[in-house]
Amino acid sequence: MPLVSAFASSSSALRRGPLARVRRLLVAAATRARSSSRARGGLPRFHAPSLPSSKGEVVRIQGDEFWHMTRVLRLGVSDRVELFDGAGGLVQGSITKVEKGGSDVELLEDARLIAPQGIQWHVFAAFGTLKGGRADWLIEKCTELGACSVTPLLTERCHTIAENRVDRMQRLVLAAVKQCQRIHEMSLKPPIQIGNLLPVVSQSKLAFLASAEAPPLLRVLPKSSNEQSGLLIIGPEGDFTEEEVHGLKSAGAAPVGLGPCRLRVETATISLLSALMLWSDANHQETQQCS
Amino acid sequence: MPLVSAFASSSSALRRGPLARVRRLLVAAATRARSSSRARGGLPRFHAPSLPSSKGEVVRIQGDEFWHMTRVLRLGVSDRVELFDGAGGLVQGSITKVEKGGSDVELLEDARLIAPQGIQWHVFAAFGTLKGGRADWLIEKCTELGACSVTPLLTERCHTIAENRVDRMQRLVLAAVKQCQRIHEMSLKPPIQIGNLLPVVSQSKLAFLASAEAPPLLRVLPKSSNEQSGLLIIGPEGDFTEEEVHGLKSAGAAPVGLGPCRLRVETATISLLSALMLWSDANHQETQQCS
């Protein structure tokens, strides 16, 4: 029996008296725990890598998601849930069976495929040398803020990234995707040499390079844009070399300033991404209202 | 003898052969270590809580700053440095004495007093219940991004903050102030009850409340502003209660949306602050160019 119901069915004396406060706190804590994996005002949501497409089909939930469903949220047979596959697939279902190693969810409708909205931002940041969990933060926050992909950028002053880091980051991405209720997973791409980034920049009409002494970002941004995607480029600790900056600018990246303070790599990334996400969100809503 | 010089004076064979790469890496590491407490392209900078005002006067550097000056950066007699007091005071000096417990720096000019520029942003965030270093991160990033002050906000769903946290955060602020080269320290204020925030909001012409389902921030922001300061208000995990939101709106806070994703408390704070700092920075530079 879920914690909340167990308390709700206790004597009504609990609503008064000295225990009333304890009860209110416990109910509040349980409500918070539930709400953390629940779409705002909606059903609790779980990740199923492979989602069937038609009403009535059954999907098996295992591993961490099963544990989260049955142990953390204490859901059981007949409880309704939402399933997503990280690629835009979303569907409501009902739990039909709970066993030791997994649970079955029956689809209550045909799965919907939701297209990504607004400009898709691709982050190229030289974070391979960051220490003290700063790279983890960068990845988690990029996921939460809605970046489409993150690619570790290899430059003269940041020429490597440990392999085991990438595995760890992949787990962080999934946790953050669930936490922030993204329908589309963020893609963590293999590291790229700065030389190989230049042709990508040349093909993009929206490419921004975080740079000290450049004009403020909000003065460089166009009023609106019809582009589908854009690039954010952030240098390493110790910055790009002059030749690297020259190469990026020649390829068409617009240098943008991020305010008067000197920002760390992860802070510059988050600051630039936040501003661009808010800009494209405002654009997107405006376009929708006009159409 | 500093690491760089020690290597520089070694046999020139080091410039070729298999050790050349090791040498380059060590030189690069030492350069990075030095640059981290150096104004961009300027002198290494240290904090002196009380700064004399006139050329020729001497100030004693002790504690962490002394250690950083003499052990990390290996500075000695005759080396030039920059001193700041965190309240806008800034001056160049020269080291005249290095002893066991501290060093003396003689002022090479009269101290300058630099006024804060642009809109001063005051952050009110309900971060008392954040775990896993998230509150620390919030404080560090607010300092780095240039917030004027941060105040823990106490609400119905976040009604406390541990006292020992505040001490720890104070240390984080100073470390971040030095790292990002702020001339003015960020002020970490005592916690405030949400009821006591309402009159502050009423008196402010720029007060923004992070809120799901609100219009996007960049559509709510005025084109420019002559205000000296503004407020950012961010709710706790589990959000404000409806009454709290109603109270804040009635007092004049503008609800603003931060994009389609559900953000954690610390991410919402950084995202909102980043965008507002970039907005006021763009405004400030425009005003300066016009005048």
TrEMBL record, chains A, B:
Occurrences of domain Ribosomal RNA small subunit methyltransferase E methyltransferase (ranges): 122-277
The keyword Transferase is assigned to this record: yes
GO BP, sorted A to Z: rRNA base methylation
Reaction equations catalysed: uridine(1498) in 16S rRNA + S-adenosyl-L-methionine = N(3)-methyluridine(1498) in 16S rRNA + S-adenosyl-L-homocysteine + H(+)
GO molecular function, one term: rRNA (uridine-N3-)-methyltransferase activity
Subcellular location: Cytoplasm
Keyword Methyltransferase: yes
Protein family according to the UniProt entry: Belongs to the RNA methyltransferase RsmE family.
Name listed for the protein in its UniProt record: 16S rRNA (uracil(1498)-N(3))-methyltransferase
